Amino acid sequence: xxxxxxxxxxxxxxxxxxxxxxxxxxxxxxxxxxxxxxxxxxxxxxxxxxxxxxxxxxxxxxxxxxxxxxxxxxxxxxxxxxxxxxxxxxxxxxxxxxxxxxxxxxxxxxxxxxxxxxxxxxxxxxxxxxxxxxxxxxxxxxxxxxxxxxxxxxxxxxxxxxxxxxxxxxxxxxxxxxxxxxxxxxxxxxxxxxxxxxxxxxxxxxxxxxxxxxxxxxxxxxxxxxxxxxxxxxxxxxxxxxxxxxxxxxxxxxxxxxxxxxxxxxxxxxxxxxxxxxxxxxxxxxxxxxxxxxxxxxx
Length: 299
Prior knowledge:
The protein has helices at about 5-15, 35-65, 85, 110-120, 140, 150-160, 160-175, 180-200, 205-210, 235-240, 240-250, 250-270, 275-285, 290-295, and strands at about 70-75, 95-100, 130-135, 215-225, 230. It is α/β, with parallel strands linked by helices and about 300 residues long. It has a single domain, classed as Beta-carbonic Anhydrase, Chain A, CATH 3.40.1050. It has a five-stranded mixed beta sheet with strand order 2-1-3-4-5. It is globular.
């Protein structure tokens, strides 16, 4: 990528344009004309009126009993990337750990620690799991190649993802692999999810809950070009790097224990009669949240 002025590089990278694969670049133009916040208000009001007409009663039922979220998620701030929307999860099911460029977990960040502590100590969801969700086309991850051109605040934040880039580049050298720019990017996105799980596990309350089997940690990858979610790390696995990455980031033990639990649960499910989505959700959702199918079907 050619050298860019500092501000221009920052804009391109954080909008996901720098080194984007063919066919995925966005059209970005310098804003012109006066700002019109009323246009946003009108759009939101119209949408909300329609939403309340369709789902207001269901929301009253769900929220009258308080929240007991089963999942807590750290995801990228990218406006196209959202676990609740892409997985069609019901209201009250997901609690936000945080969102930022690159889905980075800083174990010293006060707001993140507060959200984790609040979830673990005060919200009693069933079958709890923490999701770290990265996405292909991530401008934050692409920014790792242009740190010298970025504002100090952005560069300092993104450096917490550098171990992912260093791991991938080291593996490519050692294995003498020649991959495309897009494949390299996907590898770093996936490795970064593992690196951030490592940071998550460095938080004492989280590690204690995982070790006592009160909590699971889950890597998820979003493909924002298709909306598909990957519940694994397919690019690293395809190139034989996945197990090495788990060892590199010191999370092999925790993910292995989780996979054993998942395998045991899957075996139990296969021995049971097939159930509807409503019946499956009834096992993990409180009664007030079980009207999910109707909520989503009428959207």
